Here is the input.
Amino acid sequence: MCRPFALRLMALFALLYPAAAQAAPVGAVTPARGSVEILDPSTFIMLMELDFGLLTATGAGTAIVDSGTDTVTTTGGVLFVGGSPHAARFKAVSPARNVVKISLPKQAITLTRIGGTETMRLDTWSINGATTRNVVAREQFEFRVAGTLHVNANQAEGIYLGTFDVTINYN
Here is the structure.
């Protein structure tokens, strides 16, 4: 006598909750994915480019991004007016427990306006922390690099791009 009642209850449940009634049958397979990033033991990659944010220039001056705090300081006729300034960010993995030497550019680089010939100079490189670091084998470490941008009087409006090299020597 109990059995018909149980069947009626199941039918009522199926009417009230149709999604549950359409659930996958026992033994059905639902695909899932896993992921991993494999890094070579001497990996060195850039995470973010150096960005001075948005500047205006009423005369010559400088803009300096602090490699530790990402804040911008300006001098002369250069004013910071917004954006999201930040130092260049790098990630590296040492193949062994090591002392690594991070080498910043020794000379200034030139940034050139997209679609034009106007330029600015970037120099006085800085790093958050020491350029020589003790690192653990096969563990990631990060660092940030910034510098001083020299803006000319009557600097043309636009986006300026340039490249610089950062080197890691594993001792």
